[in-house]
Write a structure and sequence with these properties.
The complex is a heterotrimer of chains A (175), B (652) and C (155).
Chain A: H1 7-24, E1 43-45, E2 52-55, H2 56-61, E3 66-71, H3 76-90, E4 94-100, H4 104-114, E5 120-124, H5 128-132, E6 140-145, E7 148-154, H6 159-174
Parallel strand pairs in A: 3-4, 4-5
Antiparallel strand pairs in A: 1-2, 3-6, 6-7
Chain B: H1 2-29, H2 33-36, H3 39-62, H4 69-74, H5 81-86, H6 92-113, H7 119-142, H8 167-196, H9 201-232, H10 243-268, H11 272-295, H12 308-332, H13 347-379, H14 387-407, H15 418-442, H16 448-471, H17 479-485, H18 488-512, E1 515-522, E2 526-529, E3 532-543, E4 547-558, E5 561-566, E6 569-573, E7 578-582, E8 584-588, E9 591-600, E10 607-616, H19 618-636
Antiparallel strand pairs in B: 1-10, 2-3, 3-4, 4-5, 4-6, 6-7, 8-9, 9-10
Chain C: H1 2-13, H2 30-40, H3 59-73, H4 78-89, H5 104-107, H6 109-127, H7 139-152
Helix pairs in contact in C: 2-3
The chains are: A alpha/beta (175), B alpha+beta (652), C mainly alpha (155).
Chain lengths: 175, 652, 155
C-alpha cells in the first residue's frame, strides 16, 4: 500500500475542514488594529466655523466611558441609527459626534430635523481624522475610556448589539 | 401552471438520476443485465425532464411572471429580451439549474456515444455522472428552488444589475458551464475505471476528446469574462485574481495538464494513474469553484447572494464526491497495469514536468485564494492575498513552463537525443534572447521582467514554428502536400502553442507598457497619449431602453492622420439605479486606445473628467486565445476521435 | 437640451461616489509618481470587494491615494508609507501579504509543492524497472528505423 497515494485525499480533507470552519466566520468583519491603543491626536473645528470643536485632549480628559460617533447627512444608515443615539443620550452617555465629509448646512439641518444626540459636534470635512482612526465609512462608533480605544463598531448601532457587544466592555472597564 | 410543470419535471429528473446512480451499479457488480439496461434510458430521461424544467423557468422570465420569486428578484419588464433570457442563468438558483441541465446533457451524450463500450464500464460511468447530478437536484429542490412562488406578487421586478446587461456577459456562463461541467465526463470515466479495476484502450481513447471539448469551452468562457471586464469596467483591466476568477482558472490549469497527460496515455499507454488523478482533480476544482462562489466563505465582486446553509450542503456533497473518489484512487490506483517506460529526457518526461508545473500552479492559486480563510480560521487574523502575490507566485511557475513548452514538441518519445535537440534549438533560443534584449533597449530598458516575458513568448512561438517547419520539411520539395497531410491533432498542437505564445506576448505588452492620462477637458481641448491626439468636440444626451447617458465625442488623429471618432458614454440605469461607464476603444495591431468620460466639473457642463489609456499589444491577447480555442476545435475534428470506431492506430 | 443634460447631471451627481473622477494633483516628479503608483497597486480599497486604490473610483480610495502621495513627498520610504496604512487598518489593507512567519507557508508554497511533486514522481519512477534495452541503436538499426518511420509518414 503506497501511502503517498493517499496524499491527495489527505490534502483535500484538510481543505474541507478549513472550508467548514470558514462557513462559521464572517469575512467582512475587519478588526481594528487600534483597539487598546491610545486615541490618535487630532483637533477639529466646529461645524461650519473656524473655532475649535473638540480635540483629543478633551476626550482624554473624560473620566467616564464616552462614545465617538462618525456620521453624515448623506448617509442612509445614519438616519436608522439616529433614534438609538438619542436614547443613549437620555441614558446619560456622552456621545461626541464627528460630521464626516459633509457640508455644514446639511449637517445642521440633519441635527435640527432629527435632534442632536451629541454632547459636542465637530466637522471632519476632508475625512482625515476618520482615516487616522482606521475608519472607512459611516456610521462608525468608537468606545473610549481614559483616552484608549476600547471597541469599534462598524455600521449603524442598534439596541441589541449595544447590549451584546458594547455593554460588557463598558461594564468591564468601569470595574 | 407551466412553472409548476417545470418544478414537477425537476423532481422526476431527480428520481431518474437516483435510479441511474444505484441499480445499474448493483447490476454491474453482480452481472444483472436487466438492471444495467436501466442506465441509458435513465440518462435520456433525465435530460428530457431537466430540459423541460429549464425551459419553464425561461418561459417565466420571458413573460416576466413576477409571481415567481426568482423572476421578481432578477428581472424587469423594461429589460431587453436578450437579458431577460440571460437572467435565467444570471442568478444563483437558475445557474444551478443550468449546471444540472448541462450535466444531464453530457450524461446523455455519454450514454449515446458510449454504446460500444464494455457494458459494465459504460454503466459505471453513467452512474457516477448521475450521482453528481443527484447532488445538484437535491440542492435545487431542498435549498435553492427556482420555482418558488411569491405572494403577494409585485407588479414589477427588481431588475438585473446593469453591469450584467451585456452580450459578452450573457454568453459567459453558458460557455463556462459547458467547460466546467464537461470535465465531469472524464471524472466519471476516471472513477468508473477505478471501479472496474482496469484502464484499457477504450478509456484512453475517451479521455482526450472529451477533455478537449471541455477545455475549448472553458478557455472561451474565461476569455469572454476577461474581455468583458476589459471593456466594461472602465480601466482596461482583464484579470484581477478575484476568487471567482480563480475558481474558473484552477480547473482550466488542471484540464490543460489532463489534456497533455491524456496524450501520453493514448500514445504510450503510460501515466495512467496520473491521468486518472488529474481527471478527478480537474472536476473537483470545478465543484470547489461552485462552492466558493455561493457559500459566503470569501468576498468577491462576483459572489452570488451568500448563504452559509447552502454552503454546508455543498460542502457535504463535495466531501462525498471528491473525497470518495480520491479515497478510491488511493486504494485502487495500484491495480492499474504499469505502462511503458521512458528515459529522463523524453517527450513523456517533458509532459510530466508540464503537468507538474500546471498542477502546482493550480494548487498555488487555490492556496492563495483560501489562505485568508485558513488564517482567519486558525488565528483570527485578517489578511489579504491579492494580485501582487499571484502575479509573483504564478509568474515564477510559468517561466519554467514556457521554457519546457518550447522544447517539448521537438523531443521524441521514449528516449530523446539531448545533443541533437539542443543544437537545433539553441539557435532559436539565442534568437529569442536577442530579440528580447533588443526590445528591452528600444523601450529604454525600464522593465526587465517585460523583456523576460517577451523573450519567453517569442521562444515558444519560434521554437513551435521551427519544430513544425522541421516536421513538414518546409524547404524541401513537396512541402505543401506534407503540410496538408498533417494529422489534425498535430495541427492543433502547433496552433495551440502558437496561440498561447501570442497571448503571452500580448499580456506582456499590456501589463508592462501601458500608459495613462487623466485630466479635465473642455470643448476643443486636446490630449495626447502614445502618439495619438484626441480633441473633445462635443457631448450629447442619449436615452436608451432602460438607461440615460451622456456621450462624449472625441476626434482622434495619429501623426496627422484622422481616424474615426471615439464616443465614450457615462450611463445611469434606472432599475436598479446604477451608473456605469462605457469606454470607447480603438483596437489596433500595435495597441488599444481606451477613452473614458467621467464627471463634469462645472455647472456649465463644458468641463469633463477624462481618462485615456494606451494598452500596447492588447489585441494579441484576445487573438492568441482565440487561436487556442480554434486549435482545440481543429484537434477535436481529427478523424481518429470519431466515437465508436475502434480502429487500431498505426504507431501502437 | 440643457434641461435634459441638467437632469442627467443631477441623477449622476447623486451617485457621485461611483462616478469617474480624476486625481487633480499628481506628483510633478515622475519618479515619485511612479513610486506612488506602485505603492497604490499594493493597497486595498477598503470599501470595494477586491480592488486596489488605483483601480477604484470610491471616494475613500481617492483620499488614500492623496495620502500616499503626501507621505512620499514628506520623504517616507516605501515601507513607511505602507506601515502608515497598516497601523490604521491592519495587514488586511495590503494586497501583497507580508512575508513573515505565518505567511511563509504561503510564499514558499510553489517551491514546497514542486518538491513534493518531484518526490512523488521519483518514487513512482523508482518503482518501475530499469529500461530493458538501454543500448543505443547501431547505425544499421537506425537506418532501418528511419525507413520504417518514413513509410508511416511522420511521428
Amino acid at each position: 500500500m503506497k501511502l503517498y497515494k493517499f496524499l491527495p485525499f489527505v490534502i483535500f480533507s484538510v481543505i474541507s475542514l478549513a472550508l467548514y470552519i470558514g462557513l462559521k466566520l464572517n469575512p467582512s468583519i475587519i478588526p481594528s488594529p487600534l483597539i487598546n491603543e491610545p486615541i490618535p491626536e487630532f483637533s477639529l473645528p466646529v461645524v461650519g466655523g473656524e473655532e475649535a470643536g473638540f480635540n483629543s485632549d478633551d476626550l482624554k480628559a473624560e473620566d467616564e466611558v464616552i462614545l465617538v460617533n462618525f456620521f453624515a447627512s448623506w448617509c442612509g444608515p445614519c438616519y436608522i441609527e439616529h433614534p438609538f443615539l438619542m436614547k443613549l443620550k437620555e441614558r446619560g452617555y456622552k456621545i461626541y459626534g464627528v460630521s464626516y465629509k459633509d457640508k455644514a448646512r446639511a449637517t445642521n439641518k440633519f441635527l435640527s430635523n432629527l435632534g442632536n444626540p451629541y454632547y459636542k459636534v465637530a466637522a471632519d470635512e476632508d475625512g482625515r481624522m476618520a482615516i487616522n482612526w482606521g475608519g472607512y465609512g459611516v456610521p462608525e462608533t468608537y468606545v473610549i475610556k481614559n483616552g484608549f480605544i476600547q471597541y469599534k463598531h462598524v455600521g449603524p448601532i442598534h439596541e441589541m448589539e449595544f447590549e451584546d457587544k458594547v455593554m460588557p466592555i463598558i461594564e468591564s472597564i468601569d470595574q | 401552471m407551466i412553472v409548476e410543470l417545470g418544478h414537477y419535471a425537476l423532481i422526476l429528473a431527480c428520481l431518474l438520476s437516483f435510479i441511474q446512480a444505484t441499480f445499474p451499479l448493483y447490476g454491474a457488480q453482480y452481472n444483472q443485465g436487466r438492471l444495467m439496461a436501466l442506465s441509458s434510458p435513465a440518462a435520456y430521461g433525465q435530460l428530457f425532464f431537466v430540459t423541460i424544467s429549464f425551459a419553464s423557468l425561461m418561459y417565466a422570465f420571458v413573460v416576466s411572471d413576477f409571481s415567481v420569486a426568482n423572476v421578481a428578484r432578477n428581472s424587469h419588464t423594461l429589460k431587453p429580451m436578450l437579458y431577460k433570457v440571460s437572467a435565467v442563468w444570471g442568478n444563483h438558483e437558475g445557474s444551478i439549474l443550468f449546471w444540472a441541465l448541462i450535466l444531464a446533457l453530457y450524461g446523455a451524450l455519454v450514454a449515446f456515444f458510449g454504446r460500444k463500450l464494455p457494458k459494465t464500464l459504460h454503466v459505471r460511468v453513467l452512474a457516477i455522472q448521475a450521482l453528481v447530478g443527484l447532488g445538484f437536484y437535491l440542492f435545487l429542490l431542498l435549498t435553492s428552488n427556482p420555482f418558488e412562488r411569491i405572494f403577494p406578487f409585485p407588479m414589477e421586478g427588481n431588475g438585473l444589475n446593469p453591469l450584467l446587461q451585456d452580450p459578452g456577459l450573457a454568453f459567459h456562463p453558458p460557455l463556462l458551464y459547458m467547460g466546467y461541467v464537461g470535465l465531469s465526463v472524464t471524472f466519471s470515466f476516471a472513477v468508473g475505471a477505478l471501479l472496474e479495476g482496469r484502464v484499457d484502450a477504450a478509456w484512453a481513447r475517451w479521455v482526450r476528446p472529451w477533455t478537449l471539448l471541455a477545455w475549448c469551452f472553458l478557455t472561451a468562457g474565461i476569455t469572454l469574462g476577461s474581455w468583458w471586464a476589459y471593456y466594461e469596467l472602465g480601466w482596461g483591466g482583464w484579470w484581477f485574481w478575484d476568487p471567482v476568477e480563480n475558481a474558473s482558472f484552477m480547473p482550466w490549469l488542471v484540464a490543460t495538464a489532463l489534456l497533455h497527460s491524456a496524450i501520453v496515455v493514448e500514445k504510450r499507454d503510460t501515466l495512467k494513474s496520473w491521468t486518472i488523478l488529474l481527471a478527478i482533480i480537474a472536476f473537483s476544482f470545478s465543484l470547489l469553484g461552485t462552492f466558493i462562489v455561493r457559500s459566503g466563505v470569501l468576498t468577491s465582486v462576483h459572489a452570488f447572494a451568500t448563504d452559509p446553509e447552502r454552503g454546508v450542503f455543498i460542502l457535504i456533497f463535495l466531501f462525498i464526491v471528491i473525497g470518495g473518489s480520491l479515497l478510491l484512487f488511493a486504494l485502487r490506483a495500484d491495480k492499474m497495469t504499469p505502462g511503458g517506460l521512458f528515459a529522463p529526457i523524453s517527450r513523456e518526461s517533458m509532459l510530466v514536468i508540464n503537468n507538474l508545473l500546471l498542477t502546482v500552479a493550480a494548487m498555488v492559486v487555490m492556496f492563495g485564494t483560501l489562505y485568508p480563510l485558513l488564517r482567519d480560521a486558525l488565528t483570527g487574523d485578517k489578511i489579504t492575498v491579492g494580485p501582487p502575490f499571484f502575479n509573483i507566485a504564478f509568474g515564477l511557475l510559468m517561466i519554467p513552463l514556457l521554457l519546457v513548452m518550447g522544447m517539448g514538441p521537438s523531443v521524441s518519445w521514449k528516449r530523446a537525443d539531448l545533443r541533437g535537440i539542443s543544437s537545433r534549438l539553441s539557435f532559436v533560443f539565442a534568437a529569442s534572447v536577442v530579440m528580447a534584449l533588443a526590445l528591452f533597449y528600444v523601450t529604454s530598458g525600464d522593465n526587465f521582467m517585460a523583456a523576460v516575458w517577451l523573450g519567453l513568448g517569442l521562444w515558444v512561438l519560434l521554437s513551435t514554428l521551427f519544430e513544425w517547419a522541421d516536421r513538414v520539411k518546409l524547404f524541401k520539395s513537396g512541402a505543401l502536400k506534407r503540410v496538408l497531410r498533417q494529422p489534425r491533432a498535430s495541427v492543433g498542437m502547433t496552433l495551440g502553442h502558437i496561440g498561447f505564445a501570442i497571448a503571452v506576448i500580448g499580456m506582456a505588452g499590456t501589463s508592462f507598457w501601458s500608459s495613462e492620462y487623466q485630466g479635465i477637458m473642455g470643448y476643443g481641448d486636446k490630449a495626447t497619449i502614445a502618439g495619438y491626439e484626441l480633441t473633445l468636440r462635443n457631448t450629447d444626451g442619449i436615452i436608451g431602453p432602460n438607461y440615460t447617458a451622456i456621450r462624449a465625442i472625441f476626434d482622434v488623429s495619429k501623426d496627422g492622420v484622422e481616424l474615426s471618432p471615439l464616443m465614450p458614454e457615462a450611463r445611469v440605469y434606472q432599475t436598479p439605479p446604477m451608473p456605469t461607464t462605457e469606454a470607447a476603444i480603438l483596437s489596433r495591431f500595435t495597441g488599444d486606445l481606451f477613452v473614458v468620460i467621467g464627471e463634469t466639473n462645472s455647472a456649465e457642463y463644458d468641463q469633463w473628467a477624462v481618462r485615456l489609456y494606451y494598452k500596447p499589444l492588447q489585441i494579441w491577447l484576445w487573438f492568441g486565445v482565440a487561436i487556442m480555442v480554434l486549435s482545440g476545435l481543429i484537434s477535436l475534428s481529427d478523424r481518429r476521435f470519431r466515437m465508436g470506431t475502434l480502429k487500431s492506430r498505426k504507431n501502437k | 437640451m440643457k434641461y435634459a443634460l441638467s437632469l442627467l447631471f443631477w441623477m449622476m451627481m447623486s451617485f457621485s461616489l461611483m462616478a469617474v473622477g480624476v486625481d487633480e494633483v499628481r506628483l510633478l516628479d515622475l519618479a515619485q509618481e511612479a513610486r506612488a503608483q506602485g505603492l497604490m497597486k499594493e493597497l486595498r480599497c477598503l470599501v470595494c470587494q477586491n480592488q486596489s486604490i488605483v483601480d477604484s473610483d470610491a471616494a475613500l480610495a481617492k483620499d488614500l491615494r492623496i495620502i500616499v502621495r503626501e507621505r512620499i513627498t514628506a520623504g517616507d520610504n516605501d515601507e513607511q508609507v505602507l506601515s502608515y496604512m497598516t497601523s490604521r487598518y491592519g495587514d488586511w489593507v495590503l494586497l501583497k501579504p507580508p512575508f513573515d512567519g505565518a505567511t511563509i507557508i504561503l510564499w514558499m508554497s510553489p517551491l514546497f509543492l514542486l518538491l513534493i511533486g518531484f518526490f512523488v514522481i521519483f518514487k513512482n519512477q523508482g518503482n518501475r524497472q530499469e529500461t530493458p534495452n538501454s543500448a543505443p541503436l547501431s547505425a544499421d538499426e537506425k537506418k532501418r528505423l528511419k525507413n520504417l518511420l518514413k513509410d508511416k509518414g511522420g511521428k
